[in-house]
Amino acid sequence: MALCDLYNVKGEKIGEIEIKDEVFNVEVKPHLIHEVVRMQLASRRRGTASTKTRGEVKGSGRKLYRQKGTGRSRQGSITSPLQVGGGKVFGPHPRDYSYKVPKKIRRYALKSALTVTFRESNMKVIDRLELESISTKNFYNIVKTLGLTKPLFVIESKDEKIEKSARNIPYTKVLRVEGLNVYDVIRHEQLVFTLGALRKTEEVLG
After folding, report:
1. Where exactly does CATH 3.40.1370.10 map onto the chain?
2. pLDDT tens digit string along 181-197?
3. Short-list 198, 150, 161, CA closest to 177
């Protein structure tokens, strides 16, 4: 097992802990990270882009002018795609972009992302994270004290005080263990676990 420093919210090192190699020290497979991130971003797409076909555009079905003798090209309807304001050919329509990758791949990709973060010394573990009340200022002071710039905090369970206090701080996010995902791990510069969240993550992924 690898060793990781344990800090308090004042940024003071208070000891060392062991972390599981099967979660934080696996063979990194970038192609799996890429595949899972693509899946996550595709699932976030709203897919609401839509255009009207010639059958949906409002307009008369009357022939614009007679077939012959005008010197112009033949036209049958003002809703034709050839007319300004007419329907669109092969335009986008509402669709679902989401797809799934196997659970084993998702789990291994997350382990790979956690391994990269740990090896690059961008992971911190703190003994606890508590606030007496909802306070953006107090939470921001913790972020500054720990020397973080774009952190992702992982907490063990629902904590409204922590989650709401972090909402308005730029580039800062708080997730519960069950919400930990590859995209957020690689998007943030630092990953901060509470000790309880770390053990729960090891239990889930180990």
Report:
1. 2-46+99-205
2. 999 999 999 999 999 99
3. 198
